[in-house]
Amino acid sequence: MGDFNDAPTQEQPLQPGGAVTAPTVQPGPKKTSGLAVGALILGILAFISGFMFIGGLLGLVGLILGIAAIPGIKKDERLSGKGLAIAGIVLSILGMLSALGTLVAGMFLMQHGGGLIQQGVGAAKMAQIKIAMDFYAENNAGRYPDRLSELVPDYIGDTDLFKLPGSDIEVTADNVDDTSAFVLVPGLSRDDPPRSVLIYGRGTFTVAGITMRSFLYLDGTGDAKPEPEFRKLIGQ
Fold it and tell me: Domains in the chain: how many in total?
């Protein structure tokens, strides 16, 4: 009986032209770019706080991070997050634009805000004077007064109504026609066209380098126009 170890062995012959293949390695999961995530977070914060100066700074940093993230994602196949970087760039730009708009608006208000507020108060006071003038017209056959002094004291008892905020001029019943912040257009009645100028501000104000004057139409509508156009309205 022969020994088992002496049994002949058979080897699998190599196929002609055969090649040994290396095992396939599956790529691991991609990692999200930290720069892209940072750009998105800062972009969101910039968009939310764009009405403040800090929003502009956050937007600037977010924009830089987003721009820096995209080339790195393209070069390294293990990184993802290009969409996050783009979203961060867009939100950062919007935040910067919002902050810039806030800055421009703030500078405009610093230069013209005081005058605009004063004119707003003036428009409200002209509307109150118009009410007194309507009562006057009811008692005078529809005719409006030619001078403000005709309203004092029967229709307007407090002469402070004829002053603008910040004025130190003392307005009294005796000097109201000369010291009032408002002027009446004489010779008008309720039969005149509704868009006739009834009362206007004595002084002017400036907006974006244009000299303006506020006034009130006979129908009670307030308006403001450049000085040359206003002069044409009242025939001067």
Answer: 1
